[in-house]
UniProtKB/TrEMBL annotation:
Residue span(s) of domain NAD(P)-binding: 6-174
Protein name: NAD(P)H dehydrogenase (Quinone)
A Pfam family hit: NAD_binding_10
Source taxon at top rank: Bacteria
InterPro entries: NAD(P)-bd_dom (IPR016040), NAD(P)-bd_dom_sf (IPR036291), NmrA-type_oxidoreductase (IPR052718)
Gene3D superfamilies linked to this entry: NAD(P)-binding Rossmann-like Domain (3.40.50.720), UDP-galactose 4-epimerase, domain 1 (3.90.25.10)
């Protein structure tokens, strides 16, 4: 049996739906199992008892990354320990692109990768690039211009649907991807200037300091400003622009163009 965690979230729901489409009858592991009827399985990594993975052979572990490192590490540890306890054969983990080591949320991903590699479980690590949807949201126009502090940096953004499609392919045939780590990006890198041009507005990059000051008064959770600032900083610093061919090979087709995805996401952010 297959189980996908985070099944109510953006990525997990797409993975779950893709596996359903393939007729693989996956379980939906989520904190809100009721919406999935008989396929729902209550999974809350914050429960110290750990999730019940009885009968699960392949676990798609979607990172539960919104939190401080100690919280996220504890969540992922409970998930992997439960997989070990319940005889899961293979874990597919949605991690972070290798180039993302400068990002504030990288540590939890690398810790989880190491925890898996040192386990006796079969595993595949999907190092997901940053979502094109996220780039669009972060670079959405403010006052008629794109003002985000991305400098001239490029981001090898990727459509969430492509990442889900890749996870579905791996989860459907885990033996073929045993012990493999994939770097998953789109095939072109996006810039804020390029996005602004698509949107027909000017790009007026602001400084990191101005953005940090704005975020500090935005009512975010304590860990969020550092996460967001690291995305701007690492992109502007040129660390996230490299594209890889793993996604095209896994999908056996070119990845979606991330630009229209980013444009659509930017359009969904209310004008400010
Ligand atoms: N590559 C990127 O650009 C990027 C951007 C943002 C986030 N991420 C990472 O990728 C993950 C998936 O992204 P997404 O867009 O699908 O995010 P999302 O829509 O916020 O979904 C995250 C899911 O994590 C699950 N989760 C959170 N806390 C949990 C807990 N205590 N126990 C069990 N599950 C828990 C939830 O699943 P249920 O609601 O089903 O319980 C939630 O829906 C995120 O959690 C984050 O780690 C990546």
């Amino acid at each position: 049996m297959l189980l996908v965690t985070g099944a109510s979230g953006h990525l997990g729901s797409l993975i779950h739906a893709g596996l359903v489409e393939r007729g693989l009858a996956p379980l939906a592991g989520t904190r809100t199992p009721g919406r999935f009827g008989d396929a729902g399985r209550g999974v809350d990594f914050d429960d110290p008892a750990g999730p019940d993975l009885a009968g699960v052979r392949v676990l798609v572990l979607v990172s539960a990354g919104y939190g401080e490192d100690d919280v996220v590490l504890a969540r992922h540890d409970r998930a992997i320990a439960a997989a070990e306890r319940h005889g899961v054969r293979h874990v597919v983990y949605t991690s972070l692109i290798g180039a993302g080591d400068h990002l504030a949320f990288a540590l939890a991903h690398r810790w989880t990768e190491r925890r898996l590699r040192e386990s006796r479980l079969g595993w595949t690590i999907l190092r997901n690039g940053l979502y094109a949807e996220l780039f669009g949201q972060l670079a959405a126009p403010v006052g008629g211009a794109v003002t985000a502090p991305f400098g001239a940096g490029a981001l090898a953004a990727v459509a969430r649907q492509d990442l889900a499609d890749a996870a579905v392919r791996v989860a459907a045939d885990p033996a073929a991807h045993h012990g493999r780590t994939y770097e998953l990006t789109g095939s072109v890198a996006l810039t804020a200037a390029g996005l602004a041009a698509e949107l027909g507005v000017p790009y007026r990059p602001e400084s990191l300091g101005v953005r940090r000051a704005a975020l500090s008064g935005a009512g975010l959770l304590p860990f969020q400003p550092a996460m967001l600032m690291s995305i701007y900083s690492a992109t502007a610093g040129g660390f996230l622009g490299r594209t890889h061919g793993d996604l095209a090979r896994l999908l056996a087709r070119p990845p979606r163009d991330p630009m229209p995805v980013a444009v659509a996401a930017a359009g969904q952010v209310p004008p400010r």
